[in-house]
Amino acid sequence: MPIKKDTRFTINNRFRGFYPVVIDIESAGFHAKTDALLEIAIVTLKMNHLGWLKIADTLHFHIIPFKGSIIKKESVEFNKIDPFNPLRGAISEKNALENIFRLVRKKIDEHSCKKGILVAHNASFDHNFLMAASKRSGIIKNPFHPFTTFDTATLSGLIFGQTVLAKACQIAGIPFDISQAHSALYDTKKTAHLFCELVNRWKRLGGWPPQTSHRKKYDEI
């Protein structure tokens, strides 16, 4: 007999109709409109019939700096990316985003969601670069929410008392190799594991589904 799924334990109900997609971007600077986007990776998520959040699919692309973009020496020295190395197998921003958006739309449909929502560590940085690249590429139908994000740095500060990705992972029991950090693929995978742990830990602690019937009113506390 097939397992009847509790509708409380679906991604669309858990996140108010939004489908979370974990993203990390490596760039040649901090300014999304002028500095080159060099690397992007995403991890999609799924939820089992008991409501536990898990990792699903992964996409990763090296990106050709867009025409006229700025490449700051200190940034590429920090993330150790050579933007002009022919062995990178880099593709255009538009090509990468079209592939990413295609997968995200598929997942949105599969989970009966209405919009994708970006999940990242210090999410405003990645969100700004994603939106700027989408606009440059002339992509009209962007599946992501235009301003709302889930920031694992903020959530980790609340739950673990740490905002640095490596330290938050360490406290969460997620192995983290500093020598592999600042690779979009590695950081996205670790951020995805961290986000799943944050959501699942809240459930283990009894925070989901919310028990509103036994909660005191604010003015009674």
From TrEMBL:
GO terms for cellular component: cytosol. Mg(2+) 2 binds at residues 24, 26, 182, 187. GO terms for molecular function: 3'-5' exonuclease activity; magnesium ion binding; nucleic acid binding; RNA exonuclease activity, producing 5'-phosphomonoesters. Binds two Mg(2+) per subunit. The active form of the enzyme binds two Mg(2+) ions in its active site. The first Mg(2+) forms only one salt bridge with the protein. The active site is at 182 (proton donor/acceptor). Keywords: Exonuclease, Hydrolase, Magnesium, Metal-binding, Nuclease, tRNA processing. It holds the Pfam family RNase_T. It comes from the Bacteria. Signal peptide: none annotated. Its cofactor is Mg(2+). Residues 19-204 form the Exonuclease domain. GO terms for biological process: DNA replication proofreading; tRNA processing. NCBIfam families: RNaseT. Trims short 3' overhangs of a variety of RNA species, leaving a one or two nucleotide 3' overhang. Responsible for the end-turnover of tRNA: specifically removes the terminal AMP residue from uncharged tRNA (tRNA-C-C-A). Also appears to be involved in tRNA biosynthesis. This is Ribonuclease T. The gene is rnt.
